[in-house]
Amino acid sequence: VNDGDGLPRIILTEPGGSSAEVLLYGGQVISWKNDKREELLFMSSKAVLKAHKAIRGGVPICFPQFGNLGSLEQHGFARNRLWALDSCPSPLPPSRSNSSVDLILKSTDEDLKTWPRSFELRLRIILGPGKLTLIPRVRNMDNKAFSFTFAMRNYLSVSDVSEVRVEGLETLDYFDNLMKGERFTEQADAITFDGEVDRVYLSTPAKIAIIDHEKKRTLVLKKGGLPDSVVWNPWEKKAKALPDFGDDDYKSMLCVDSAAIENPIILKPREEWKGWEELSIVSSSYCSGQ
Ligand code: TA6
């Protein structure tokens, strides 16, 4: 499907009524709506939906480098490349209620100049009732080993970030990007937000809950093969400094990413790494009386 902005996209729907929209550009999910057509992911009011610029919202794929942890552009180049439909995806367990798409990004001669490793990066996106699953895989197509860091940056839509709690990260160590990446230990019994937060939580549990009181909704992030989780909100000052971020956008978003940052993933020739994340919505409205 080609929409107004000329970016080819795939629309996924499932019998329960939810939907998702995926751009071939960046292999990026840009929308995930529940069965009530509510948008569950954040998209900046000033996002630039043009090729060759990272799109500020949905689920950007940060590969082969997270942040500025290396010589590449911030968060690597995968989110700024045109991916393709994977014509020979590995078989999926049969399921009536899911719809899915398989995307692939292969290293190009251009990329080999900046990152001299040949790779195949695959991403399977599966939409199920109340559930969105992303399964990234990286295969080393080279004749020597290489390592990379990786993140799926989940821009989540929230009613008011100052009313959001994140549970599952308590007692963990984290790198604080606001304190030159120094390592700290989380003391709070849940993460709440009253200012800029930019932390890489390390070796997180497989399940993290983002509780949005106002919307009476909890988003549960489950993941595997991606031990770390970045929690980011730019808050007012940084939001103003980002040209593709609306000044008030920070109030209605929170990034809680699935990532492999502390320990880069190392692949031997022909070896393939596989990770996964599952975003699901638990609307507490019906259980409010319980
Ligand atoms: O969360 C890590 C981080 O590097 C932040 O410091 C902030 O820069 C954010 O990612 C946004 O990066 P981007 O390249 O998407 O603007």
TrEMBL record:
Gene3D superfamilies in the record: 2.70.98.10
A GO term from the CC aspect: cytoplasm
Keywords, in A-Z order: Isomerase
Xref: Pfam families: Aldose_epim
Highest taxon of the lineage: Eukaryota
Binding locations of substrate: R56, Q74, R79
E.C. designation(s): 5.1.3.15
Class of this enzyme: isomerase
Listed GO biological process terms: carbohydrate metabolic process
CDD domains to which the protein is assigned, alphabetical: D-hex-6-P-epi_like
Family in the record: Belongs to the glucose-6-phosphate 1-epimerase family.
Protein name (Swiss-Prot/TrEMBL): glucose-6-phosphate 1-epimerase
